[in-house]
Structures are given as structure tokens and as C-alpha cells.
Amino acid sequence: MLTSVCGINWGDEGKGKMVDLLSEDYDIVCRYQGGNNAGHTVINERGKFVLNLLPSGILRENVVNVLGMGMVIDIRHLAEEMARLREKGVKISPANLKISDRAEITMPYHVLLDCLEEERLKDKKFGSTRRGIAPVYADRFMKKGFRMGELFEPDRLYSRAKEIVEWKNLTIEGGYHHAPITAEEIVEYFKTYGEPLKEYITDVGLYLNEAAKAGKKIMFEAQLGALRDVDYGIWPYTSSSLTIAAYAPIGAGVPNLKLDRSIGIMKAYSTCVGEGPFTAEYFGEEAEKLRAAGGEYGAATGRPRRVGPFDVVASSYGIRCQGADEVVLTKLDILSIYEEIEVCVAYELDGKRITDFPYPALLDRCKPVYEKVKGWHTDISKCRKKEELPKEALDYIAYLERACSCKITYVAVGPERDAVIKL
Ligand code: GDP
Q1: Which runs of E-coded beta strand occur in 200-260?
Q2: Is 53 in a helix, a strand, or coil?
Q3: Is 377 known to be catalytic?
Q4: How far is it, in rounded angstroms, from Cα 22 to Cα 196?
Q5: Are strands 408-412 and 420-422 parallel, antiparallel or unpaired?
Q6: CATH numeric code, 104-197
Q7: Which residue's alpha carbon is at the smallest distance from atom 27 of ligand 1?
Q8: pLDDT tens across 280-297, in order?
Q9: 2-100+205-263 domain in CATH 3.40.440.10?
Q10: Cβ distance 131 to 37 under 8 Å?
Q11: Model pTM?
């Protein structure tokens, strides 16, 4: 049984919490794209955990966690993340963590290049998380990167480091006029942060195939939402990887296997980190009210998120891209601040009303068309059963189901593990 849990919107939908909850029924949780450029926040009985690279299943003792080949892994960040979790009593060993030998390594010079480019762009900056993600994916396709499996070949590593450094310095020193990097520091870096990871590195494709054959339940955990997918998202304001569910078996290392179920995580309102078009956006006091209620500050970067009402146009597109068989609606409790809830039901493009999400460049000319629905204006964060939800909340859920042509199977009403209602 292969399930993907993926984001319908711009990310930060609460995927981490839902993977943490749903992983109870799974044997394996697998990341298949991205790096440490986003964070999942999971709150359970042991405390609050921010996970950037490790799958959320790491917090469950019987779950095996996989970092798939579609990922880019900052090995220093991974070492620090593992140490932080261990301090809180989380057990990590090769028995419950497996890293693909084909995953790419994010190097310090990728982070450097990311920062240098953002600084060069000044006010035209991209809003990069400055974790080196675009540079490392670019090198992956240039075939001038390092992969996890190469840590086992130190001689080859050194000769490749020399070649890559020569090439990289053309940009670092020649283009950005920054101090050059050296092959020695790269080799040293691999010794410090790569060596301790060697026991976790394996052919995870083989492992996952065997596991699937043995009837194990595998969950794929997406890191960012559909609208950040490099191909299907709001390009170029996207991440540099494929976030969508259809890519999960490929990025995990099992292109031969098919998904059985795709669960979309969709937020009851909209949030977006960084630059780029965000049609249904609130500003000023209206934005501050929603941002404060939802605690909308980036888990990885602390940046305030842009906020707005639920967007039917973008979410319907997200549901389609994810092939979501069912949807979990998160953070419904936050909308308790409203007596009336606004919903963006269409865009106006050059005087015409549209409901199909347009090519991203056209979004700059789109204006939101809002509808108002009755709110419940009462605390729902303690509700644990459908019957306990106010009628207006159930009406809002039904309204979104109709508007987005989807089936909402759960709603989340708080950050805690049990703050979820099965519908
Ligand atoms: P992810 O990247 O999709 O996992 O999302 P983030 O972790 O960035 O953001 C989700 C945030 O909302 C976290 O702080 C969660 O603890 C919290 N959260 C998740 N679901 C709910 C919910 O239903 N209600 C509230 N109030 N908070 C939630």
C-alpha cells in the first residue's frame, strides 16, 4: 500500500502534523524531494519538533524513515537535526533511518551561491530560503554535484572535488568576486559530516521494493505544496523540485511502483512565503489579524508569511495536480476569529471572470473575486467529533467540498496530535 501525503496550496498546510498522525498506520515514511528549505512542525506528547530533512515518521518508534533520491541533503544540517532530536530522546539508527545513495549533497558553496545571488538581485530578489536548493538542483542536472554514494569512494571524491572547485570558482571568484573555495575544504567537510552518515546510506529503491513486496505500508511525505512544484507551480516563484504526488515513487526510488492513495492537505485559508503572485492576499490590519491568529511565521526561516482567504481557484488546481482522492482541511480553528468568512471564488483577468488557474505570468493581472459565508465565531479547538462542530463550520466544509469538487475526510482544529476530526 503506497500513500502520498501532499500539499494542495503553497506549503505550510500542516502536512507534518498529518503525516505524524497518519504514520501510526504505516511502516515506512519517505521524503522524495527538496531539502532543508522548509520545515514541518510536529507537536506531540514529547514536545515540539521542527523537522527540515527528516521525515515526520522519525518521531514514531516503529516507523522506518527514508530520505529518497529526489532529495538534496545538506549533511551538516542533517547532523545537527539528528543531534537536536536525540537530545529530546528520539532514537535514530540505521534501523529506522535510511538515506538514498543517489540523493544529492547540498554543499556549503551552494548555500554561498544562493546568498550571493540574492544579494546581487537586491530588491529584485527571489525570496530564496538561502539554503542552496536552486544551486544544488542546477548542479544535479549539470551532473557536477556529489551524491551520497560517492562518500564510499574517497579517491574519486577528491579528484572530482578538484574538478568541481575549478569550475565553481569561475562563478564564485570570477563572477561574484568572492574568496575562492578549495578542494581540501570540501574533502574535510565530507570527513566531518559525511563519514558519520555512511552507515545510513543504502540503495533505498531496493529496500522499498522488498518492503512493498512484503506488504509493508509506505507513506510518501511531500515537503512543499502543489503551487511550489517547479513545473506545475507558480514558476519561477517555485521551489526547485517536483513536489507533486505523481513524482513521489520516482523521487523515493521506486519508479516501478504506483500510488494507491493520494491525500491532499489543504489549509482553511491561504498562506504563502516569499515573493511571487498570490492573488487573494490580505494586507495591513486585515493581514495582521489573520497572521497573528494563525501564527503564520515560517518554521525554517521565521519569516512572516503572506496571508489571505481560502482560494478556490488555486486550491482546485492544487487538488487536480495532486490527484487527491481525499482532502484534509487544516487550521479550521483559526477562522473562529471571523463572523463572516471571505472566500476567493474566482479571479478577474482583463475584465473577465475566470475559475481555472491560469498560466503563472497572467497571475500578475488577476484580481480576486470574493464571496462571504457565515462564520461560527466561537472556539472549536476542543472539538473532537463531527457532531461537536457548529453548523456554520460544517457548512463551510461542505461549501469548500462543492467549490473544489473534493471530498474532505478530516479537519484539523489545533496543532496537537489529537486535534483532528474524522468526518
Ligand atoms: P507543514 O510544512 O505543511 O507541515 O506546515 P508547518 O509545519 O509549516 O505549519 C503548520 C503549523 O500549523 C505548525 O505550527 C502546526 O503545529 C500547526 N498546525 C497544524 N495543523 C493545525 C491546526 O489544525 N490548527 C492550528 N491552530 N495549528 C495547526
Answers
A1: 201-202, 218-225
A2: coil
A3: no
A4: 31
A5: antiparallel
A6: 1.10.300.10
A7: 415
A8: 999 999 999 999 999 998
A9: yes
A10: yes
A11: 0.93
